[in-house]
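4.2 Preliminary Data

To establish feasibility before requesting continued support, the project team ran the inverse folding procedure on a target of 367 residues. The structure was first converted into the token representation described in Section 3, and no sequence information of any kind was made available to the design step. The complete token record follows.
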């Protein structure tokens, strides 16, 4: 095993009680997690995680070790939750659901995720008046909670909060607090919201509009041509760009992705190179609302009346690709989707636009 890769493993192992280990196979190493506490020992397999362990394969192997580190984080959080439950002396099905719910919320890293979990917990607490045990959570209870949510928030809000509630019960199953998740039998249809995107002429119009915050607006235009999420834009560094290609690991999914950079995106990078001195390509605010505020001012000056947020750049990239006949599978890979169903939404948007275009054609009545 290449020593530099061993050092990479040691770096992650310093922070976790679940240690990354490797086992020699014929011409590669399989990566797994190892947990030891007192007399207990457990090995945890990581699906499709192998390294070659040679200097020439270091960069690719490093990505696999990073994947293993993400599994470390998941198991660390689960272990922390179990300790929390023991500390609070919660007895399985007799335990208070809210205590477990809050423990899960506190284990989340993302502010957006924490916010949706917190909102769900607030509604759940009002609905249950703060007193509910796992033993009381059955199919009827789940249906009543969903009905309650529909009376308080929109269909999309209900879908989001009920999904969080369902995820909490899934975790309760994993921890063997309950044997079955009754919420999975409750339908939770989500109202489809039209994704806002820009057409080519609108992108050109924006590019020619003066910007008071070029880092934000350039990042938006760059995303229109690459499909990067704002979370990946924020952490994009110059060393991830080489030979007109992006090579990075997506923050949301932890999936490695390689994207060829087209001419328009390369021009944006040239401009950024002149205005940046640090490692990061774009200096974008940590707050989404702050970024979107500046974007809206810029869009308004251009004369475009659409409601544009940063996520619209990703929608724009997807619809542009499909408009110019890039196949759905390739678009899915470019976007870094783990499920092609997420990409099919954009195909439906293009079909809808085609239908609208046909309806605009003049009607000629034949005699």
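Position-by-position output of the design step:
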């Amino acid at each position: 095993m290449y020593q530099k890769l061993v050092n990479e493993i040691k770096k992650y192992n310093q922070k976790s009680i679940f240690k990354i280990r490797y086992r020699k196979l014929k011409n590669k190493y399989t990566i797994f997690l190892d947990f030891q506490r007192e007399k207990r020992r457990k090995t945890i397999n990581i699906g499709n995680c192998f390294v070659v362990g040679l200097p020439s394969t270091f960069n690719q192997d490093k990505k696999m070790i990073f994947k293993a580190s993400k599994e470390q984080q998941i198991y660390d959080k689960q272990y922390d939750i179990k300790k929390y439950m023991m500390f609070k002396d919660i007895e399985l099905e007799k335990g208070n659901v809210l205590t477990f719910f809050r423990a899960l919320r506190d284990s989340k890293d993302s502010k957006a995720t924490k916010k949706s979990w917190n909102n769900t917990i607030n509604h759940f607490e009002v609905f249950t008046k703060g007193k509910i045990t796992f033993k009381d959570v059955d199919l009827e209870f789940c249906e009543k909670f969903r009905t309650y949510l529909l009376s308080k928030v929109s269909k999309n809000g209900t879908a989001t909060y009920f999904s969080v509630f369902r995820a909490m019960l899934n975790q309760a199953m994993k921890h063997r607090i309950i044997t079955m998740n009754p919420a999975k039998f409750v339908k939770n249809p989500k109202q489809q919201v039209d994704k806002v995107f820009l057409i080519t002429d609108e992108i050109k119009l924006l590019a020619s509009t003066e910007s008071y915050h070029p880092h934000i607006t350039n990042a938006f235009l760059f995303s229109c041509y690459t499909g990067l999420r704002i979370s990946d834009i924020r952490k994009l560094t110059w060393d991830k760009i080489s030979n007109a290609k992006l090579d990075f690991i997506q923050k949301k999914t932890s999936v490695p992705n390689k994207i060829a950079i087209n001419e328009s995106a390369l021009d944006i990078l040239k401009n950024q190179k002149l205005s940046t001195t640090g490692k990061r390509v774009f200096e974008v605010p940590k707050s989404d609302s702050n970024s979107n505020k500046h974007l809206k001012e810029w869009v308004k000056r251009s004369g475009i009346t659409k409601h544009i947020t940063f996520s619209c750049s990703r929608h724009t990239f997807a619809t542009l690709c499909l408009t110019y006949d890039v196949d759905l599978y390739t678009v899915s890979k470019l976007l870094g989707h783990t499920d092609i169903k997420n990409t099919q939404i954009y195909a439906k948007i293009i079909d809808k636009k085609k239908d609208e275009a046909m309806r605009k054609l003049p009607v000629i009545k034949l005699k």
